[in-house]
């Protein structure tokens, strides 16, 4: 099992071959891309089986490939860790990744840059596997930046479209904010604990004061929010849908955006040690899940609705990991189940777009169930799964999180439980709206579309396989994952459950609100909808504008940054020279007029140096005397 | 005479040179101001050598003179080549590079 | 009171200092090679000179590198020439670094295919724009640049080993004067090249004057020019501490000027833009290494006892340097100026490492210098390659869509920019990580403030780098845009060596980090 570095090496080698061979690989490159991920999946399964064969306490394998950074007391190895937590992620990434790779062969068939696409796609898989397989935070940071790079390249893959280029930039910049948080957290860990290994941090966390664990926890949370599109760094994720649909499915729904959840789950010793940090995670999750669901109700672009739904569902996962204790496993079950049905939804959306000449406006669909039956059926199953109707997978994964939120002691239990319940109702509403408007009701197609067609088998087969996952994964996962993950979260203490409501009551309540939300949407949209945006109340207007998240970013961050830059440039150009001229007028008397019109640059530089020298000298005196 | 006065004199000369660099425009004069600063430093070095009773200061002063001579060679070569093209020795005219 | 003559007589009876020729080998080889180059310039025929000078310089550099390695193996820690020169770990590491980076930069200088006749002007004294100037445009470029480069490198190797202020001053001038001349020798755009030389020369001489006066003050304080003597006097002397701190301030000005720290950075953008690109590459990599080396030695050998007074002041300078460099880089439109501001910000990161006042601080700075040097030389090699009819196309607007016309060059440049931005798996990440963790290892409040500023400015800096990447790959190509020049093997070698080193130091930095850590002990 010690060869599990191959998991990373194979997709990476494939990406390198595809990029280096260039046009030579155009004819068969996509198949190499699919093959590499397929082989990685096969290996992952075999490693997983081997890991299962070990006794429960012993289920982890660690390898140090080579010493990476050894400076004084800083010892970072290029080390990998294969334990139950990374195993489930590896299976998700390679398994769902493989299906989406297959799908992409068909989806990208007419794109002249298909080979490049697969190279970036393989690069992403390699980076994502590095992220989950590293045995220390620096390795995680490597993968973290790697998936960020791949995501940036793939969002702006169709860079001739202006919106795609802008979306890529937005994603990169917002992610940098989160990355800075993660980087500082790693620095603090090293400064206080002297190690960045997961095992070392877990052992050392008891020595830290609560202020330090809070700081590390919040900085990690910032990093997680950036990558996972959580409040307040959520704005980039919906824009990222400018990339090709397989990208949206793999990176921006199933795997990369869940890296934030992985980070917090992996850092569970830190969060367990500090309930305040946990409370922040819970609050972020609750805010985001409601916010994403509200915005999702107001969008008319099929991929954007799904994107906001992703934001909202990851909110559930954050809620779960924030609750701690047994809810860690619940969050991960939801993460895995979500990986299946959300990938299925996105690929279904891609299939619809494929048949409708890249139309994305759900007001322009309708009645499609007759024309693309496989897409309709698979999308329908995924829809029932995400709204959480028993016995599909969403029910087994989401409902326990809602129940766990209600178990939180005090008024917060009511608050978060209520928020999670509201989110479930809204999810049912907007997903039903999406489904009904797309596949049922009257046809509202644009003129040029005469006969929409079903996608080729290479695209529908992955859809069918993912649909099986949407149906069955929930039950299977909820019975096996909690035991499987016990060794990883053994330090997590169970909170004394408050049991505001009995578990059965929560179950019935969530089923009832789900059905109500779905029925309401069915009743409202079964006859179609207006083709243009209708005037609406304040809440809907706000939701259409992403609850003003973009406007907020612009006024609070972008504008002051621009002004600061301009002011500094202005000072450098005008301020220094003006000062020189003033001094010249004072000393040189008659030459002052000439001095003001002629800007003497060398001399202004000399003034800057002399002024600097004086400042340094004065500063020394102040420090000495003060 | 107190050696301290020489230090004050050296500091004054150094300041005059530094201010000269800021307010004169002719590249040659500007360069002469820098030479004045170097010579002020020489005076300080020699004075401190006298105060400390060691020879390091005097030796350093000799080295500074030699280096200053080498600097003149390089500096005048650069200033001359610019003068030939621009027909002006004003440093303010050389401002193509900015911002 | 003894007269000066008495003192002199006493001094003369004392033995002449012993010279360890092996330890001084690198400087002797480089200066010898440079003198030989001057003779070749005088006696060899005009047609044979480019070939002779290039290979002579390269051989001299290889020989110097061999002597560095031998000196490191034989006697890693020794004073020589009385205590004027300290051949210790940091000195040897930086000598090796400067020589290797000098070799790579020399490859760029020797390129004679991009511009027919090389990147340098044939006769610098000919006025720009005249008939004679047009005629010399077709002539083979000057070859004095090679001995000048060797002199500069010799000065740098002495500078990093100088153990008293006199030697340090002489070395400073020996490597600065050839650089002033090199700046003025561009074949194209000679007006701005000359202007750059003038500015660099005047400001450099200005800074040297500060250095000498600072030396005088420190000499007055400590009664000696030796760095070790200042260390002893810093606590023991009864002299006025005004002398000490005035002296430190003035010397710091001169060293921070060479390092390009704010507010002594003002020359950097102009000079980097105006100088011939190979010379800019040479300055960005080697001058920075030499200047930081000397600064480290002054801080760690002479001033470590007053570090509590130094930290806030130089720490503020470091923070300011990172901020100004990063913020001003954002609005640059010229690629060479952009790299200049990036170099300023990097000076700030280096100061963060230097101010850790620990062995990790020294080793991380040494590693940073080597890693940054390779990246920056390769980046300027790309700048030298991207050209249109009238020379290098340095305006960023002209780089739009370069990725579609020349994917290899654009790809390499993207990689180098990612390294500047500190993305993992490049040397930029490893080196930034090393200096920041060294600073946090000391965990003083100033170190923490510097690291925060460092992380924030790294984020700011990612933006201008990313803008170039976006320009190259995502923008529509401009009409008659620049082409990648048909370069010879020399430039390509320099580019690939730099990029390869950037990758290796990012993926597998352990050996070099080990070496730097072993070397990071100053001789007191």
Structure description:
The complex is a heterotrimer of chains A (626), B (99) and C (524). The model of chain A is unreliable at 575-600 (pLDDT under 50). Chain A is mainly alpha-helical. In chain A, helix 13 packs parallel to helix 18, helix 14 (302-323) crosses helix 17 (393-406) and helix 16 (373-387) packs antiparallel against helix 18 (411-439). A two-stranded antiparallel sheet of chain A has the order 1-2. Helices cover 72% and strands 3% of the residues of chain A. The N and C termini of chain A lie far apart (62 Å). In chain B, 79% of the residues lie in helices and 0% in strands. Chain B is built from three helices and no strands. Chain B has helices spanning 3-23, 27-52, 56-86. The longest helix of chain B is centred in the C-terminal third of the chain and has 31 residues, at 56-86. Chain B is elongated, with a radius of gyration of 17 Å. Chain C is mostly helical. Chain C is 72% helix and 2% strand. Chain C has helices at 4-13, 25-43, 49-74, 89-110, 131-136, 145-159, 165-183, 190-222, 227-236, 241-259, 267-274, 277-302, 307-329, 335-354, 359-385, 402-405, 407-421, 427-442, 445-474, 489-507, 510-519, and strands at residues 78-80, 85-87, 386-388, 391-392, 483-484. In chain C, a hairpin with a 2-residue loop joins strand 3 (386-388) and strand 4. In chain C, helix 6 runs antiparallel to helix 7. The model of chain C has no long low-confidence stretch (mean pLDDT 89). The chains are: A mainly alpha (626), B mainly alpha (99), C mainly alpha (524). Chains in contact: A-B, A-C, B-C.
């Amino acid at each position: 099992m010690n060869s599990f570095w191959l998991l990373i090496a194979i997709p990476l080698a494939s990406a390198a071959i595809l990029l280096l061979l260039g046009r030579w690989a155009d004819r068969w490159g996509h198949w190499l891309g699919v093959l590499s991920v397929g082989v990685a999946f096969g290996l992952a399964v075999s490693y997983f089986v081997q890991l299962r064969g070990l006794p429960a306490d012993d289920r982890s394998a660690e390898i140090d490939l080579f010493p990476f950074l050894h400076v004084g007391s800083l010892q970072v190895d290029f080390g990998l860790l294969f334990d139950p937590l990374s195993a489930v992620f590896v299976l998700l990434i390679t398994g769902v990744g493989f299906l989406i790779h297959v799908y992409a062969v068909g989806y990208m068939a007419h794109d002249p840059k298909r080979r490049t696409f697969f190279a970036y796609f393989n690069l992403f898989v390699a980076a994502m596997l590095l992220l989950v397989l590293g045995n220390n935070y620096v390795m995680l940071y490597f993968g973290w930046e790697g998936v960020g790079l791949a995501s940036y390249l793939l969002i702006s893959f169709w860079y001739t479209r202006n919106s795609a280029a802008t979306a890529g930039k937005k994603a990169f910049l917002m992610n940098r904010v989160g990355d800075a948080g993660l980087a500082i957290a790693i620095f603090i860990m090293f400064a206080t604990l002297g190690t960045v290994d997961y095992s070392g941090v877990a052992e050392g966390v008891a020595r830290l004061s609560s202020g330090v664990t809070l700081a590390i926890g919040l900085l990690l949370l910032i990093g997680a929010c950036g990558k996972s599109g959580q409040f307040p760094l959520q704005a980039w994720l919906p824009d990222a849908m400018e990339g090709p649909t397989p990208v949206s499915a793999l990176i921006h729904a199933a795997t990369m955006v869940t890296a934030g959840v992985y980070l917090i789950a992996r850092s569970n010793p830190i969060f367990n040690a500090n309930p305040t940090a946990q409370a922040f995670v819970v609050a972020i999750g609750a805010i985001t899940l409601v916010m994403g669901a509200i915005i999702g109700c107001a969008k008319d672009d099929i991929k954007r609705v799904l994107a906001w739904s992703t934001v909202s569902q990851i909110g559930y996962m954050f809620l779960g990991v924030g609750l701690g204790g047994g809810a860690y496993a619940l969050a991960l079950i939801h993460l895995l189940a979500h990986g299946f049905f959300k990938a299925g939804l996105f690929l279904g959306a891609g299939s619809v777009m494929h048949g409708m000449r890249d139309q994305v406006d759900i007001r322009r669909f309708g009645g499609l169930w007759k024309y693309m039956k496989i897409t309709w059926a698979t999308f329908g199953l995924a829809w029932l799964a995400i709204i959480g109707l028993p016995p599909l997978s969403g029910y087994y994964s989401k409902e326990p999180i809602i129940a766990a939120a209600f178990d939180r002691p005090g008024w917060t239990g009511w608050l978060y439980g209520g928020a999670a319940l509201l989110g479930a109702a809204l999810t049912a509403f907007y997903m039903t709206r999406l489904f009904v408007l797309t596949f049922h009701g009257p046809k509202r197609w644009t003129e040029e579309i005469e006969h929409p067609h079903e996608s080729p088998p290479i695209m529908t087969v992955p859809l069918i396989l993912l649909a099986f996952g949407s149906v069955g994964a929930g039950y299977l996962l909820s019975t096996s994952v909690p035991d499987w993950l016990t060794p990883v979260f053994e330090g997590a203490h169970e909170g004394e459950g408050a049991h505001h409501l009995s578990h059965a009551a929560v179950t019935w309540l969530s089923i009832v609100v789900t059905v109500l939300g779905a029925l309401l949407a069915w009743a409202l949209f079964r006859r179609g909808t207006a083709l243009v945006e209708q005037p609406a109340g304040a809440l809907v207007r706000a939701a259409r504008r992403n609850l003003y998240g973009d406007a907020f970013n612009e006024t609070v961050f972008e504008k002051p940054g621009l002004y600061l830059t301009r002011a500094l440039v202005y000072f450098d150009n005008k301020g220094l020279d003006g000062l020189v001229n003033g001094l010249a007028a004072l000393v040189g008397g008659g030459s002052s007029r000439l001095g003001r019109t002629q800007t003497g640059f060398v001399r202004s530089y000399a003034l800057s140096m002399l002024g600097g020298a004086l400042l340094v000298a004065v500063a020394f005196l102040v420090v000495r005397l003060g | 005479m107190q050696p301290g006065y020489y230090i004050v004199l050296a500091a004054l000369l150094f300041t005059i040179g530094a201010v000269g660099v800021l307010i004169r425009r002719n590249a040659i004069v500007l360069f002469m101001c820098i030479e004045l600063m170097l010579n002020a430093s020489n005076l300080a070095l020699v004075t401190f050598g006298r105060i400390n009773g060691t020879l390091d200061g005097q030796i350093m002063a000799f080295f500074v003179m030699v280096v200053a001579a080498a600097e003149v060679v390089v500096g005048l070569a650069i200033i001359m080549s610019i003068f030939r093209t621009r027909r002006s020795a004003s440093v303010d005219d050389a401002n193509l590079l900015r911002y | 009171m003894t007269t000066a003559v008495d003192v002199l007589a006493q001094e003369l009876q004392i033995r002449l200092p012993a010279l360890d020729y092996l330890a001084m080998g690198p400087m002797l080889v480089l200066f010898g090679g440079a003198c030989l180059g001057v003779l070749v310039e005088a006696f060899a025929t005009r047609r044979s000179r480019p070939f002779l000078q290039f290979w002579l310089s390269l051989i001299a550099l290889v020989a110097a590198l061999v002597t560095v390695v031998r000196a490191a193996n034989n006697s890693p820690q020794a004073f020589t020439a009385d205590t004027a020169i300290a051949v210790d770990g940091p000195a040897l590491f930086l000598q090796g670094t400067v020589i290797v980076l000098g070799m790579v930069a020399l490859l760029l200088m020797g390129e004679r295919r991009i511009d027919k006749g090389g990147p340098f002007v044939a006769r610098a004294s000919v006025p720009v724009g005249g008939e004679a100037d047009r005629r010399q445009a077709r002539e083979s470029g000057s070859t004095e640049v090679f001995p000048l480069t060797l002199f500069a490198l010799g000065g740098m190797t002495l500078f990093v080993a100088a153990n008293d202020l006199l030697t340090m001053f002489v070395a400073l001038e020996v490597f600065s004067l050839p650089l002033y001349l090199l700046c003025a020798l561009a074949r194209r755009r000679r007006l701005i090249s000359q202007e750059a030389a003038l500015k660099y020369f005047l400001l450099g001489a200005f800074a040297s004057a500060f250095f000498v006066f600072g030396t005088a003050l420190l000499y007055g304080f400590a009664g000696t020019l030796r760095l070790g003597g200042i260390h002893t006097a810093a606590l023991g002397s009864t002299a006025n501490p005004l002398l000490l701190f005035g002296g430190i301030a003035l010397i710091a000005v001169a060293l921070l000027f060479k390092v390009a720290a704010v507010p002594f950075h003002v020359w950097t953008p102009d000079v980097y833009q105006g100088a011939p690109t190979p010379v800019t590459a040479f300055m960005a990599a080697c001058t920075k290494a030499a200047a930081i080396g000397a600064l480290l030695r002054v801080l760690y050998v002479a001033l470590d006892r007053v570090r509590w007074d130094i930290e806030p002041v130089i720490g503020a300078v470091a923070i300011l340097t990172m901020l100004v460099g990063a913020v001003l880089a954002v609005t640059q439109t010229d690629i060479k100026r952009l790299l200049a501001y990036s170099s300023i910000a990097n000076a700030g990161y280096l100061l963060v490492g230097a101010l850790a006042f620990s062995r990790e601080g020294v080793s991380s700075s040494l590693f940073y210098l080597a890693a940054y040097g390779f990246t920056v030389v390769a980046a300027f090699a790309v700048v030298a390659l991207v050209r249109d009819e009238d020379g290098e196309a340095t305006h960023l607007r002209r780089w739009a869509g370069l990725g579609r016309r020349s994917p290899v060059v654009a790809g390499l440049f993207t990689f180098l920019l990612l390294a500047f931005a500190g993305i993992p798996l490049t040397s930029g990440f490893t080196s930034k990580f090393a200096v920041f963790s060294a600073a946090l290892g000391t965990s003083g409040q100033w170190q923490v403030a510097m690291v925060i500023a460092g992380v924030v400015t790294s984020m700011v800096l990612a933006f201008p780098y990313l803008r170039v990447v976006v320009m190259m790959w995502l923008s529509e190509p401009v009409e008659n845009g620049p082409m990648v020049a048909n370069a010879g093997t020399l430039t390509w070698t320099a580019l690939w060596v730099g990029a390869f080193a950037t990758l290796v130091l990012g993926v597998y930095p352990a050996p070099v980090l080990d070496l730097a850590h072993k070397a990071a002990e100053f001789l007191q």
